[in-house]
């Protein structure tokens, strides 16, 4: 009986992870295709009414969205967590009377650690940080896709845009932890097992926003995120490299060629531990100067490096591993 239960659990974990991968890769295209196809059937009224409603609802993602506890607590996310497994670690308290910007590193291929930790309750964010509301900010283009936008909002995702950040940090009360994967598409192209490279030397916009709204900065590092896939890395200047960067420039994200277990899309069973660091106090400045932005950006990078080295051994890395910031 125990063996059968174990096999069933493994099956549920594999199916849960597979649905997440397929959703990430294909759900947007499927939603667009479905709506377009319905326009040429007897059900054409359904997508027509939806498009009209979407136009009226266009700015909702940037005005608090429609997060749903039911979706965030789906049992499927617990199976995703157990597949690797994933864990969320707290190093300091977050004051519910303040707002925060959590810079999450590294991006990895799909930011699975960030999504599971901050857009679901599988890792226990609400219990670990009582009174804090996690808000994962992602590419704004996703919220323009019919149906997909509803799913993204239900999980508690928001566009990583200035109006969205302004709403979350000034018009949505206190206790908001706005999570931004700082390295974005550029960092995803650098993801490879055993390598800890983050893109942020020129990423200062999040620091400027933190100063404008007086939100404390919190470094976050997901150990193991780069190990769950094996990415095909193109040589700089090659055709593949140029096509990836052209696509990133046009669409805002980079298409990564990767493999997992059995040469398929299933990720490797590698532990992913997301460690939330100590808050870095940031003053409120309505018009921060470049010197102030550079100062707090430097302090943030120092805090990230400190966090990485303090927890790397306990999270499965050797003492010789370094954090490379580009």
UniProtKB/TrEMBL annotation:
InterPro entries: DAGAT. It is a multi-pass membrane protein. One of its GO terms (cellular component) is endoplasmic reticulum membrane. Keywords: Acyltransferase, Endoplasmic reticulum, Lipid biosynthesis, Lipid metabolism, Membrane, Transferase, Transmembrane, Transmembrane helix. Its main location: endoplasmic reticulum. The chain crosses the membrane at residues 20-53. It is an enzyme of class 2 (transferase). The keyword Oxidoreductase does not apply. Its EC number is 2.3.1.-. It comes from the Eukaryota. The keyword Transmembrane applies. One of its GO terms (biological process) is triglyceride biosynthetic process. It is found in: Endoplasmic reticulum membrane. It holds the Pfam family DAGAT. GO terms for molecular function: diacylglycerol O-acyltransferase activity. Belongs to the diacylglycerol acyltransferase family. This is Acyltransferase.
